[in-house]
């Protein structure tokens, strides 16, 4: 994701205002090289107070994938023993933080786990999250609430710059 501030709006634009903070998926061609980009309004996700643009850019997508994993693909509950064994380290860190916050117990060995989140489950969660375009705001709101609660404060992500946005 890329995050920034809306600096201008087209004549038929509704739902956002100049100065709103938003995040949007990185275009297929990669992150914009310019400091200003023009986007369709339906590709934007509003960033609430209490969440920085950097947090939204770094953690929204891993958070949405983690949400799909923990709630839809292989739901976990309080007290479940969970083993996470996939390569995507940022998503893994977000999943582990969220498992702990939800009362799960992280275990080192898959044989000791009630639930195993492996590469197959992570890929399925990524597909599940991407198929739910109509519910993106709902998923994003849930992830942002979790960010504001400090659940991901210890998760380290690479740093990217923010942009200004015209919609």
Task: Describe the largest sheet.
Answer: 5 strands, mixed
Rg from C-alpha positions? 17 Å
State the helix count: 4
Q: Determine the fraction of residues in helical runs and give it as a percent range.
A: 25-40%
Provide the β-strand percentage band: 15-25%
Structural class: alpha/beta
The poorly predicted ranges are 161-167
Q: Strand order across the biggest sheet?
A: 3-8-1-2-4
| SSE topology string | EEEEHEHEEHHE
Ends: how far apart?
Answer: 16 Å
The total of beta strands comes to 8
Give the averaged pLDDT, no decimals: 84
- The coarse silhouette is elongated
Structure description:
The protein has 167 residues and is an alpha/beta fold. It contains four helices and eight strands. It has helices at residues 53-73, 89-101, 119-131, 136-148, and strands at 2-8, 21-24, 36-38, 45-46, 81-85, 105-106, 115-118, 163-166. Strand 5, helix 2 (89-101) and strand 6 form a beta-alpha-beta unit.
Summarize, please.
With 167 residues, the protein is of the alpha/beta class.
């Amino acid at each position: 994701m890329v995050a920034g501030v809306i600096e201008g709006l087209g004549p038929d634009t509704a739902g956002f205002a100049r100065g709103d903070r938003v995040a949007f998926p990185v275009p297929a061609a990669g992150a914009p090289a310019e400091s200003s980009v023009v986007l369709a309004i339906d590709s934007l996700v509003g960033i609430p107070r209490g969440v920085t643009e950097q947090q939204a850019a770094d953690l929204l997508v891993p958070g949405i994938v983690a949400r799909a994993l923990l709630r839809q693909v292989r739901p976990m509950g309080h007290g479940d023993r969970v083993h996470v064994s996939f390569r995507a380290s940022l998503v893994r860190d977000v999943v582990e933080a969220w498992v702990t916050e939800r009362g799960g117990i992280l275990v080192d060995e898959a044989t000791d786990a009630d639930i195993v989140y492996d590469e197959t489950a992570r890929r399925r969660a990524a597909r599940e999250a991407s198929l739910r375009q109509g519910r993106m705001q709902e998923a994003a709101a849930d992830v942002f609430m979790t960010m504001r609660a400090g659940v991901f404060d210890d998760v380290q992500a690479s740093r990217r710059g923010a942009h200004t946005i015209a919609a």
